[in-house]
Amino acid sequence: MTERNLDFDRIVDRRNTRCVKYDSAAQRGYPADVLPLWVADMDFRTTSYVEDALAELTRHNIYGYSNTLPGDGFFEAVSGWMKRHHGWDVDPSWHVKTPGVCFAIAAAIRGLTDPGDSVIIQQPVYYPFSSLIRRNGRRMISSDLIRDAEGNYRMDDEDFERKIIENDVKLFILCNPHNPVGRVWTAEELRRIGRICAAHGVTVFSDEIHFDFIWTGRHQVFQETDPSFREITITATAPSKTFNLAGVQQSNIFIPNPGLRQRFTEEIGRTGYDEPTIFGITAVQAAYENGDTWYEAMKAYVDQNLCFAEAFVRERLPGVTMKKPEGTYLMWLDFSGTGMEPVELDERIIHRARLWLDSGSIFGKAGAGFQRINAACPRSTLREAMERLERIL
């Protein structure tokens, strides 16, 4: 069998398929005809190995309670991917399955902290971090990233440590690589921030869901940058970004510390949602076992999209700047040079350009004046979006 789904220029009509990206605009207050490049959801058909595995499953036509078993190939597929692509040896005892990374973050917040405790993040950052903290009755603390004159971001270690001490922080949610600014943190950066957490008894939830999209440098698994970090870390991974499988609800969480793992799994047990779907485990195993060809081809295509967009911004969008991300397939465009206030910018983008992007303000105050754009789509779609931006500027 060979990979069939390698035409990334192909436009797939996703409307009227119960697709959040395309079918929920009017429900969320946007014009029904907007072109959506907001949520981190690719417009590519996934590997044909997943397609075939799910087709075979439907022919069986019984969808009862399901789970994975030792030796059935599921963990071997997951661990094989981690070893091949990240040089990371994961132990079966570390492995916890969840229906998603946000589900896992919420479980960690409830299971590892008490109501009123402080949880620290680094804004501008993936906006569910702050909403999950607040919705679960904890205090959200941000040590904002520092952006220099050239548009490069870095962590503010002094501010981070000071806020941990002042607020008695219990949990740090790390975004690695960082969404939306696109940083691929170096081993040294991670070691510095990790040692601060270890010194003050802070547990680290490392969200590494975008770890398969690295354009500059190499992804560093946080817990492996210092052997001692295994004792304080929950590492969250998923194939949902890599293979566009968010809808099958399957993530792989790794927790080496038995005590930490027990507290986490006990909280999951309290939700009553502790069994994976047969569709999720089937799709994930097929992707991780046989999806390498599709993955490498898709990644090369997205890389070209990012280069195309970077050149377009530089040449045709006056007042806008963009640095190609070091990681993720998300572009972080700075519109501050246009002179428009964030509210006016959003109004023009939504109602004149008819685009649905992620406004930078939702990522925290540090994101005001920015827009996040998803580049994982056919080139013609991305070109159309960029040309619409050009027209409103």
Rg, nearest Å: 21 Å
Strand coverage percent:
5-15%
Count of structural domains: 2
CATH fold label of the largest domain: Aspartate Aminotransferase, domain 2
Instruction: Tell me the major beta sheet.
Output: 7 strands, mixed
The helix/strand class is alpha/beta
Count up the helices. Answer: 12
Provide mean pLDDT, rounded.
Answer: 97
CATH class categorisation of the largest domain: Alpha Beta
Q: In percent, how helical is the residue content? A: 25-40%
Q: SSE order in H/E notation? A: HEHHEHEHEEEHEHEEEHHHEHEEEH
Low-pLDDT runs: none
* Form type: globular
CATH superfamily of the largest domain: Type I PLP-dependent aspartate aminotransferase-like (Major domain)
Terminal CA distance reads 49 Å
Q: Overview of this structure, please?
A:
With 393 residues, this protein is α/β, with parallel strands linked by helices. It folds into two domains: 20-46 and 292-392, Aspartate Aminotransferase, domain 1; 55-290, Type I PLP-dependent aspartate aminotransferase-like (Major domain) (Aspartate Aminotransferase, domain 2). Helix content is 38%, strand content 13%. The protein has helices at 20-23, 48-60, 74-86, 101-112, 128-135, 157-167, 187-199, 258-271, 278-290, 292-316, 342-352, 379-392; strands spanning 35-36, 95-98, 118-121, 139-142, 146-147, 153-154, 169-175, 203-207, 233-237, 251-254, 330-334, 355-356, 358-359, 370-374. The strands form four sheets. A seven-stranded mixed sheet has the order 2-10-9-8-7-3-4, with helices on both faces. α4 (101-112) runs parallel beside α5. It is globular and about 55 Å long.
